[in-house]
Specification:
CATH superfamily of the largest domain: Type I PLP-dependent aspartate aminotransferase-like (Major domain)
Number of domains: 2
Mean pLDDT: 95
CATH architecture of the largest domain: 3-Layer(aba) Sandwich
Largest sheet: 7 strands, mixed
Number of helices: 15
Bound molecules: ligand T4K
Oligomer: single chain
Shape: globular
Structural class: alpha/beta
Length: 411
């Protein structure tokens, strides 16, 4: 227990954990199964270019998403790019700024203009009214992002896109296995994109996939991920090298086998965080709707300095010193970073407020229930002396302490 400021590791006390706890520890699954698969690929001397493991991985992912086609790629950023290209997007693309910068960069790299719109303040997902208000004669698509695995307001966004003749696409990087109104994420819009990065709920080292029920689109994407080759092995369209390797698929398949267990574990961690942090002033765990089949790969808390007396960024530093390594998904938001803040300055009040408060706490298979209890204990202790911690940190940095009663307003 941290009773006084001096007990905190940031100010010289012993760290709460001997080894760091992380947000994005990979879910590896049964290592021997992975090595078996890898050995098979090595024995067969077939490492990439349409190997059997990638094919099997695509089938499994398509099953999980309840969709006809899965086109696996080397990462999700490239998958987004291929999809934008395949759908022939032009001009402006509407999207939330509360997302990983990859959603926007994938568009900008193709010469498109990401147009950032504000979000629902609770879910953090794109607000359909804001999206509709941002449509111009140059708009070609709306890209929804299922932030932290929470589904976007899909029906409403699809209606907006249909009313204006726009393409509707979804960045589902966080949402494998999740659902929306009883339907699996993966079948919405023209296509959806998953990420299988090492930090994701299912990992293939690096990896991504476009999933779609549109057979023609899938065929086009398969060709585009492999230099635009047609059936005869000659280029028939513009393409690149975006293939997933057999080694990546071996990891993906193994991680996917553990997916069910991982989700059960993540949900238990999430529930534990909610109960342990319930009633802590200024700290609220962002809830998931159980009907949405959340994979709970992220435990997101909002830190409201008015209640905690300590700013999110200082809390993050305090926790890091305790070996609790948190993340800010997503802060700064996309419109606050280059090249967007210079190219197209915009103010998004709800995004900025959420982005200022958001903090992701460690979870995943490597984080046990006991770890969660201990992390929460530390958070409770720090918040109980939040104003004092803030003052100490200011003094350490050579600033005057906050005026009495105004500690909340300082960083
Ligand atoms: N759309 C959305 C909405 C996304 O969130 C992302 C990616 C994409 C698109 C693009 O997907 P990809 O092209 O990457 O497939 C991480 C990931 O690199 C990124 O994939 C992910 N979103 C984003 C939310 O998180 P960082 O910069 O936070 O990663 P990093 O290296 O700081 O790792 C985070 C934590 O994970 C560390 O504290 C330690 C732990 N970790 C990380 C790695 C790489 C491990 O324990 N082992 C590892 O191997 O971006």
């Amino acid at each position: 227990m941290k009773r006084k400021v001096d007990d905190l590791a940031l100010f010289g006390g012993p760290a709460a954990f001997l080894r760091p706890l992380f947000v994005g520890r990979p879910s590896i699954g049964d290592r021997s199964r992975f090595l078996e698969r890898l050995n098979r690929a090595l024995d067969d001397k077939w490492l990439t270019n349409g190997g059997p493991l990638v094919g099997e991985f695509e089938e499994r992912v398509a099953e999980v998403a309840g969709v006809r086609n899965c086109v696996a790629t080397c990462n999700a950023t490239t998958a987004l790019q291929l999809l934008y290209l395949a759908k022939d997007l032009t001009g402006e693309v509407i999207m939330p700024a509360m997302t990983y910068v990859a959603t926007a960069h994938a568009a900008r790299m193709l010469g498109l203009t990401p147009v950032f719109c504000d979000i629902d303040p609770v879910t953090g997902c794109l607000d359909p009214l804001e999206a509709e208000a941002a449509i111009t004669s140059r708009t070609s698509a709306v890209v929804g992002v299922h932030l932290w695995g929470r589904p976007s307001p899909i029906d409403e966004l699809e209606k907006v896109a249909a009313r204006h003749g726009l393409h509707m696409l979804f960045d589902a990087a966080h949402a494998l296995g999740c659902s929306y109104r009883g339907r699996r994420i993966g079948r919405f819009g023209a296509a959806e994109v998953f990420s299988f990065h090492a930090t994701k709920v299912v990992n293939s080292f690096e990896g991504g996939a476009v999933v779609t029920d549109d057979d023609g689109l899938a065929q086009q994407l398969r060709s585009m991920r492999s230099f635009g080759f047609g059936a005869d092995g000659h280029s028939v369209r513009l393409g690149t090298n975006a293939k997933m390797s057999e080694a990546a698929a071996a990891m993906g398949l193994t991680s996917l086998e553990a997916f069910g267990r991982t989700v059960v574990h993540n949900r238990a961690n999430h529930a534990r965080y909610r109960s342990e942090l319930h009633g802590v002033d200024g700290v609220s765990v962002v809830p998931f709707d159980d009907d949405e089949d959340p994979n709970c790969q992220y435990v997101v808390v909002r830190i409201d300095e008015a209640g905690t007396g300590i700013h999110r960024d200082l809390l993050m530093r305090v926790l890091k010193a305790e070996n609790v390594v948190t993340q800010r998904y997503f802060s700064p938001a996309c419109h606050q970073v280059e090249p967007y803040r210079t190219e197209r300055p915009v103010t998004l009040p709800r995004t900025e407020r959420l982005s200022e408060q958001v903090l992701n706490l460690p979870t995943g298979p490597a984080v046990s229930e006991a770890d969660v209890r201990r992390v929460c204990e530390v958070v409770r202790d720090v918040v109980a002396m939040g104003a004092e911690v803030t003052d100490r940190s200011r003094r350490q940095a050579g600033h005057a302490p906050a005026p009495a009663g105004r500690a909340n307003a300082t960083r």
